[in-house]
Amino acid sequence: MTADPSTSRSRAGAFRRPVPRPYARARVLLFPHGGGSASYYRSWAESAPWDVEFLAVQYPGREDRYSEPLPADMQELAAVLAADLPLDGPPLPTILFGHSMGAIVAYEIARQLEAAGEPVAGLVVSGHPAPALSRPGRVHLGSDEELVQELRRTGATNLEILDNASFMAAFLPVIRSDYRLSETYRELAGPRLRNPVTVLYGDQDTEVDSREAEAWREVTDGTCELRVFAGGHFYLDEHRDPVVEILKAQARAASRESAAGWPSTP
User: Fold this and answer.
1) CB 233 within 8 A of CB 144
2) What integer pLDDT is reported at residue 164 of this predicted model?
3) Name one Pfam family in it (predicted).
């Protein structure tokens, strides 16, 4: 994979601003699925309004972070990403969004931020069972051919890429690492979140069912809302716009709440 030269970095190494919003009043951090990269969310950032900035997360080992070591486990990945916070610029209300593996990464970062006294304004998770019901697996232990077949099954990767032998030779170690992170993940004991949680999933998704989605209610003492879309694991490809609208609405609501709580000038 090649880096997108039009994508600028924040002060830290993990966060990309595909389309800067210098007057933003809230931000949304976007965590990709396993095997995904920051460029997946470029079109989302392009549709963001002037007052909400979308930042896409670049995991180690891909695109312009290709030479960086792959994390040992999910908690290490979350810690590496959380270390890049706070972002440059003024503190802003922040919504975390993650799809598939990215849902767990976003959740683990929300836990770390709350533990540090920096709660997020909201957590939006997509296409993944609740942490306590995360499914173990052995895909990461299979052959390269078995790994490619799994990618075909889930629709996670463009078919042209899957048929490119030289590209896949470089890409498969990253994919295997992401499967390992997901399939070996176990939630560690800790306090429940306080922020609101929104759960999104496709009604034909074989990776998460309604019971596993409902169980996200157990991670927070705040509100929890579920939204179901028509489609499979990558329902996002057909329903990007309504999902972006959910994120924009939550970010703007958080911005209004933050402004209402700001002290008046004496």
Assistant:
1) no
2) 67
3) Thioesterase
Domain harbouring 171, CATH code = 3.40.50.1820
Domain extent at residue 25:
8-260
Residue 195: what pLDDT? 95
Q: Is residue 1 part of a domain?
A: no
Reply yes or no on whether 43 is catalytic: no
CA distance 26 to 93: 5
Closest CA relative to residue 228, chosen from 198, 201, 197, 199: 201
Task: Assess contact for 41 and 33: CB atoms under 8 A.
Answer: no
Amino acid found at 159 = L
Catalytic residue selected from 6, 39, 47, 100? 100
Residue 235 domain-assigned?
yes
Q: Does the residue 3 lie in any domain?
A: no
- Residue ranges of the chain with pLDDT lower than 70? 1-12, 154-167, 260-266
DSSP string, 91-147: ---EEEEEETHHHHHHHHHHHHHHHTT---SEEEEESS--GGGPPP--GGGS-HHHH
- Which amino acid appears at position 32 of this protein? P
Is 111 part of a structural domain of the chain?
yes
Q: How far is 222 from 196, CA to CA, in rounded Å?
A: 5
